[in-house]
Automatic annotation (TrEMBL):
<feature type="domain" description="NAD(P)-binding">
    <location>
        <begin position="8"/>
        <end position="132"/>
    </location>
</feature>
<dbReference type="InterPro" id="IPR051207">
    <property type="entry name" value="ComplexI_NDUFA9_subunit"/>
</dbReference>
<protein>
    <submittedName>
        <fullName>NAD(P)H-binding protein</fullName>
    </submittedName>
</protein>
<dbReference type="InterPro" id="IPR016040">
    <property type="entry name" value="NAD(P)-bd_dom"/>
</dbReference>
<dbReference type="Pfam" id="PF13460">
    <property type="entry name" value="NAD_binding_10"/>
</dbReference>
<dbReference type="InterPro" id="IPR036291">
    <property type="entry name" value="NAD(P)-bd_dom_sf"/>
</dbReference>
Length: 251
């Protein structure tokens, strides 16, 4: 039986990856800051991280923090994995990290390079944004009476469960390097996605498209985060919303 460590295993993606790996008969260790027995802050490393990694055949690295420190966390994880003789490190990244000069994307690209230079067998999967992330974004923006969106930006959201299926499959295989990108089934304007959210939730908000400045905005506007040639996802954003909110938009 293969032993697989999933970092960020209680998160939106990591939880689903863990479920699928366990269903496949693998022994799965869940690492997060508060999940015992492998409660570890990757940014700190230490003996608890060594204990979590020791004996693992594969590590699936899903952990990330909006508070920063992802590069330090990756360095600590890679060092521990090398000491433990881990055979395969799988990393989830984002389409466009090498094309859009956005701070978080730069961090993801830096971690990709750490993984590639780790000396371990490795696999990197880049995907477009998850449906869940767009939902969180729209929920936050809709707190105001006017929903402000960056003008002329499109998105290609993908279903988190489908990404989990792909990532868990890669974890069961041999190291494959950088695999083909995974994009959602539709490339749509951000305002059309926002209006779908408003309909599904029964909210009424004016949607206003605002032109912005800066290199990151231009990167998104030019579609650097999209992969229309790899629109392999099946579940659309509308289907995701319908399952999440049911008939709320018809009231």
């Amino acid at each position: 039986m293969t032993t697989i460590l999933v970092t960020g295993g209680t998160g939106t993606l990591g939880r689903l990856v863990t479920e699928r790996l366990r269903a496949g008969g693998h022994e799965v260790r869940v690492l997060s800051r508060h999940s015992r027995p492998y409660a570890v802050d990757l940014r700190e490393g230490g003996s608890a991280l060594d204990a979590a990694v020791t004996g693992a055949d594969t590590v699936v690295h899903c952990a990330t923090s909006p508070r920063g420190g992802d590069e330090r966390a990756a360095r600590n994880l890679i060092a521990a994995a090398r000491r433990a003789g881990v055979g395969h490190l799988v990393y989830i990244s984002i389409v466009g990290v090498d094309r859009v000069p956005f701070g978080y994307y730069r961090t993801k690209l830096a971690v990709e390079r750490l993984v590639e230079d780790s000396g371990l067998g490795w696999t990197v999967l880049r995907t477009t944004q998850f449906h869940d992330l767009l939902l969180t974004f729209f929920q936050g923006m809709a707190k105001a009476p006017v929903l402000l969106l960056p003008a002329r930006v499109k998105d290609q959201p993908v279903d988190t469960a489908e990404v989990a299926e792909r990532l868990s499959g890669l974890a069961r295989e041999t190291p494959a390097g950088r695999v083909e990108d995974m994009g959602g089934p539709e490339v749509r304007t951000l305002d059309s996605l926002a209006r779908a959210y408003l309909r599904a939730t029964g909210r009424r908000r004016a949607v206003v498209k605002v032109p912005l400045r800066g290199a990151a905005y231009h990167g998104f506007r030019d579609g650097g985060h999209l992969t229309p040639g790899r629109a392999v996802g099946r579940r659309t954003f509308d289907e995701f919303l319908a399952e999440r909110f049911g008939g709320a938009g018809r009231r």
